[in-house]
Structures are given as structure tokens and as C-alpha cells.
Amino acid sequence: MIKGISTGVGHVTIIDNSKVTKQDIQNNFFLDPESTGQSKSKSTAELLQELNEDASVAHEEKNPSELIQNNPELFDPFTTIITVNMAEQEVLKLAAICNESKKTLITVKNKGLVGVFSIQAPEHTGKRKKEKRLNSGPIINYILQ
Predict the structure, then answer these.
(1) How many structural domains compose the chain?
(2) Rounded to an integer, what distance in angstroms lies between the CA atom of residue 97 and that of residue 75?
(3) Ranges of Polar residues compositional bias (predicted)?
(4) 72: helix, strand or coil
């Protein structure tokens, strides 16, 4: 998931308290065999930083579920939050936090090559602006506010 958003993003924070396993190396583009047994968030952040030197990449070696429960203000500076294979109860709590603070939440569940994702985003209102052109019908522009 991170590989797809690595360009054009100014800041990424990876939060994970687990260690890298051999299975992780097979499934994760940002991990190499030397990462086995090391912090997954740190190893991923280091390799992501190499891919996009212009971005600021940080990592937190903390349990995301505990942060959602005990320290939800940690998410305040984020504009978009992406979860991968997080338990449903934690996703629901995080969704409430994101909804209240008008943040975008992308949840991903995957197993092997099969996956599903959902997006919860704050409402964007638009205004219609009609313009007339010579010899043609009206053009409608939507302006997001």
C-alpha cells in the first residue's frame, strides 16, 4: 500500500510494533532478508525513505490498537490514515476519530493476492458556476470548497 503512495506525499508515519518475519519479507516490497527480527516500522520507513528522498518518513514502534484506545490525539496532525488488516473493532474506533476530525480513512484487508478496501472521507460541497460561451451551450464547473 505504501509503495503506491510514496510519490507526491510530503510526510508518512508508519506505526507498527511487530518484528519482521520471513513471511513479511515475501509479502512486503519494503523489507529485505536483513530486516528479519528487526522493527517492521523502522525497516519499512528506512526503505521507503530511500524510494522517496523528498518525503519525510517517520516511524512509531507502538501498537496501533493501543494508540487508538489510549492516545487518539497522536492522529491529530495526519490528514489521511491507512490501516492494513486491522481488527474490525479498532477500525470502527478509528473511523469515529477520523469522522469527528474530518480525516480520510482508508482501510485495507488482504490475504495473498485477494483484498478489499474502503474509504471514509469528509464531505466536500460544491457550487455550480455557469458560464456561457459563444456558439455553444453552457459549461458547468464544480468548485470544491
Answers:
(1) 1
(2) 9
(3) 31-46
(4) helix
